[in-house]
Structure formats: C-alpha cells, structure tokens
Amino acid sequence: MTSRQSTPPIVGVIGGGQLARMMAAPAGALGIHIRLLAESAHECATQVISDVVVGDFRDYETLRAFVSSCDVVTFDHEHVPNALLRRLASEGMEAKLQPGPNALQYAQEKVKMRELVAPELSPRWKQVADIDEARDFGFPCIAKSLIGGYDGKGVWRVESDSELSELLKHGGLLLEELVPFDAEISVLIARSPHGQAAVWAVTETIQENGICVQTVTPASHLSDEVAGKAQSIALTIAEQTGVVGVMAVEMFVVGERLLVNELAMRPHNSGHWSIEGAITSQFEQHLRAVLDLPLGATDMRARHVVMGNILGGDKADLHRAFLHLFARDPGLKVHLYGKEVRPGRKVGHVTLLGEDTKRLSARALHATEFFAGRAGEHDE
Ligand code: ADP
C-alpha cells in the first residue's frame, strides 16, 4: 500500500534562541517541519522543537551536513560567518540559504550597510582604525564595533580622545554622529525569492540603557507621510539587498527626517507584536517567505498594539506571576522563552491590543515589572 502521508518541507534554522522557538507555533500550524542547529541541547528553542542537531555553526562540515539535510535554511541570529555561507553557496547550496550571504553581509557588517544606504539617510559616519583617523570627527559621538553587537553591546557613547583610544585597542570602529533623535522606529518587512514584499505598520521602539523595553504600533507621533516614507525606505533596502524572509530596518526620527540605524535579517524583537496584533505574524511570514510561498496580509487586528519586553529581575520563577497577572488583566498575552532568568536578559514579552496607547503601555509596564519582581500586586 502506498503511504498517503504528506511530506512536509524541512526548514533548517541555525540558532536555538527565542526567535527559532517562536517559529515553531506557525510551523506546527502549517505542518512545516523545523530542524534546528543549536549550539547546545539547552538552548531555549530545543524545548519546543524536537528535531535538533547540536553543533557549532562556525564549523564548515557541521554547517554543510546540516544544510544538505534541509530543503531551505534560515537563521535565528546573524553570527554565522559570511565566508562559510559563501563557500556553501559556491558548492551549489545557494538556493537553500534564505537569506543568502550577499544579503546577510549588510546585516553583519555595519560599514557595508552604511555604504549601501543613501548618504542622506545615514548619520555622518567614518570607519577608523586608529586615533589619528578619528581626530577630526568630533565629540561626543557614537562608536560601534564593526561586526556583531546586540542590545546596545558593541555601541558606546564616546566623549573624548582618551575614551576612544581605549576602545580602539580592541580593533577598528565605526564612528557615527550622535543623532539627536525624537524617536526610534522599526519597519518590519518580508520579501520572498519571487520578489513579493509585504510591510507591517511602523513600530516605535522605546529603549532604556540600549535595550528595547516597549514597542508601540503604529508608531505614535508619526505623520502618515513620514510613516509611508519609512516603509518605502525599507522596501528599497529589501530590493537592494535581495533579502529573503523578514527584515527589520531600525531608524531614527529627527523632525521630518529619517536616518537608518541598523538592519536585522530575521524576525526581530520589534515585530513580536505581530503574533497577536497582525493577520500574519512575522514568524509565519518568515516561513512563508523562505519557502517562496505567497505572503500573508499584514493588517493589524486592533487599532493599537503595545509589546513589553520581560527583562529578567530577581524572581527566578516567572510562572508564579501568572495567577496575579491573568486575574488582573484577561486581555494580556504572555510569551515566556524558557530561558534562565538573568538580570536585564530578555526572557519573554507581553502583548496588548486595544484603543488607547497610554492605557496599553501602562498595562504592559505593570506586567513586565511584575515579572521582574519590581511591582506589587496592588500597584497601579
Ligand atoms: P544594537 O542593535 O546592537 O543594540 P544599535 O546600533 O541599535 O545597536 O544601537 C543601540 C542604541 O544606541 C540605539 O537603539 C540608539 O538608542 C543608540 N544609538 C545607536 N546609534 C546612535 C547614533 N548614531 N546616535 C544616537 N544614538 C545612537
């Protein structure tokens, strides 16, 4: 008798963090098989994805074997060395890598991204190898490591020659003017190999000490015209880079001007609101895009959506917060990532849909503070 079981496509995901973990729910719904390349059997995505290869993504043979075993491969982070991806591409695996190395280089190397983006959309910038090259740039400025960095790590506000000399001991830097921004926004966009693109409403990201604490969608205080301009900048970058999957384009708003800050080529923290807040979430869209399927509608399910990041505090047991928070706020949606709680670490997020951004923000703040152990049961 012939088997009548349908064969699901296998999407390989390199990296076992919360982004891979959150791909599991839409993959399950669509009957897509996810295979994970995780650095250890303890990474948080391994709790919800059963097909796990434990191995080092910096090792070419490990990568090659993993990519060979999947129909398409995508990423939970941007740390896979570009040279290894190029080698895989040259060995006939280019079509499996989504996004591919050509696109990914712009998310991996900040100078490459700066060279790509139109000068009027970038802060003044300069790549410097030593203090002499930095002399006339001016202080205060922002210094960034050339590769890597997340959550404000690898980004420094620099006030003087001596501070900069100290940082330059560890290698070259990208210097940027200190942008006096009014707000930070993120435009989330998905693109498929066919070239279909879909963009979500612009999100405002609210940061504290370099970490995003809340997002508000659509971004408040942004005219329709500026929001449209932000979306069209993201579309242009998606086309120019040839990215496949979800990309977040982080930007500064300075009056009516927009300046591009950073690109991420994967689902992004600024898009978590879309799980409950949009017809198609960034995680489902990412899977559809990397499999070259038609993209889903990005319309919002409510007028406003606020997402609050749960940052680790001194309470190790996050689940103890459920009873109080669920009783207090039945509209609250909670996502915990199954990660060990460490102070300041992103360990989950909450989402609220509704009509009044201020109320939604206050409810999100209470929940995230309560998870972190900083709010009492009776706090407003
Ligand atoms: P990462 O995503 O690695 O944390 P970013 O480039 O997004 O690094 O920088 C982190 C934060 O630093 C930004 O969200 C912003 O608040 C601030 N920042 C970065 N570049 C500038 C700049 N040129 N001017 C002013 N602030 C900046």
From TrEMBL:
InterPro entries reported in the protein's UniProt record: ATP-grasp (IPR011761), ATP-grasp_carboxylate-amine (IPR003135), ATP_grasp_subdomain_1 (IPR013815), PreATP-grasp_dom_sf (IPR016185), PurK (IPR005875), PurK_C (IPR040686), PurT/PurK_preATP-grasp (IPR054350), Rudment_hybrid_motif (IPR011054)
Gene3D superfamilies: 3.40.50.20, ATP-grasp fold, A domain (3.30.1490.20), ATP-grasp fold, B domain (3.30.470.20)
GO biological process: 'de novo' IMP biosynthetic process
Keyword Membrane: no
Residues in ATP-grasp domain copies: 112-291
Pathway: Purine metabolism
Protein name: Unannotated protein
